[in-house]
Amino acid sequence: MTTLADFNALPAAEAEAFVAPCVAIPSWATGLAAGRPYTDVDDLLTTAERLGAAWTDEEVEGALADHPRIGERHAGDGASAALSAREQAGVDPADVGVQARLRVGNAAYEEKFGRIYLVRAAGRSAEEMLALLEERLENDPATEIAVTKDQLAEIALLRLRGLVT
């Protein structure tokens, strides 16, 4: 964790690299770096939220490659993968029944929507994430991309809150 003053003082490229693990959308990191200096953390988060609201469907689709499937905690070696592993702490490896249903649900979701199922996992149990998955399988593609975009923004904001004090 770093202070807002330290984040404000970073060179632009370092500021972008610092926030990049929050979400794999380069325009978001660039926009956050360009918006400095921030007066307080709420100012930073408001800017982050505004920038997230402007994400295109293509940017969201591209960012999904940086996330593991729910129930799978590994998606590479970087900082984002480490964050995902912590966020999915609610998926108990001993609960094989829920894990099996998550695998089936993930496959059904990918078949229907052509991308991984993304949900803010932090603070949610495996059962909650499974229930949301099963509920979202009823969505049409336009509704689901909007829900996915909202979930990605929630994840990015939570991660950003964890980086800057």
From TrEMBL:
GO terms for biological process: purine nucleobase metabolic process; urate catabolic process. It is an enzyme of class 4 (lyase). Pfam families: OHCU_decarbox. Residues 8-161 form the Oxo-4-hydroxy-4-carboxy-5-ureidoimidazoline decarboxylase domain. InterPro entries: OHCU_decarboxylase, OHCU_decarboxylase-2, OHCU_decarboxylase_sf. Keywords: Decarboxylase, Lyase, Purine metabolism. SUPFAM superfamilies: UraD-Like. Pathway: Purine metabolism; urate degradation; (S)-allantoin from urate: step 3/3. GO terms for molecular function: 2-oxo-4-hydroxy-4-carboxy-5-ureidoimidazoline decarboxylase activity. It comes from the Bacteria. The keyword Calcium does not apply. It catalyses: 5-hydroxy-2-oxo-4-ureido-2,5-dihydro-1H-imidazole-5-carboxylate + H(+) = (S)-allantoin + CO2. Its EC number is 4.1.1.97. The keyword Lyase applies. PANTHER family: 2-OXO-4-HYDROXY-4-CARBOXY-5-UREIDOIMIDAZOLINE DECARBOXYLASE-RELATED. This is 2-oxo-4-hydroxy-4-carboxy-5-ureidoimidazoline decarboxylase. It comes from Nocardioides turkmenicus. The gene is uraD.
